[in-house]
Specification:
With about 140 residues, this protein is of the alpha+beta class. It is about 25% helix and about 40% strand. The protein contains 3 helices and 6 strands; from the N terminus they run ααβββαβββ. It has a 6-stranded mixed beta sheet with strand order 1-2-3-6-5-4. A hairpin with a 7-residue loop joins strand 2 and strand 3 (about 60-70). It starts with a helix and ends with a strand.
Amino acid sequence: MSAQVDYHKALYALMTGNTALMSLVDGVHDRVPEKPFKTKNAYISFGSAVVVDDGADCIVSDIHTRQIDIWSRKVGSIECAHIVDVVKKAVHDKDVTLEDGQIVHTLVDLSRVIEDADGLTWHGIVQVTASIEDIS
């Protein structure tokens, strides 16, 4: 598997394994279903992924950045902001082990809440990064 795929899976596991987070959202999706808003009126999806070379003379390393999107239809931005905070706690400053045995340290380096263009939905954004060295 690629480091990018493994990192995605690790973030997914951190979020779905967090009972406090899962009590607030209707799921964590890579591909959002047709009707994602259910009883909790909030869900999480994966956004963009960016990989930037961070290697040196004899080290192959990349900085992996993943965007995690929170979508909430509860009235006001406060509920979305709360879910953003819980996502941050679930993934920030965590060590995860990738399938090939690498231990990767995750860091949240940006979060924000904005109103979606539809006027009904609040959009939370959590950006998570990790430096992953190729050990193959």
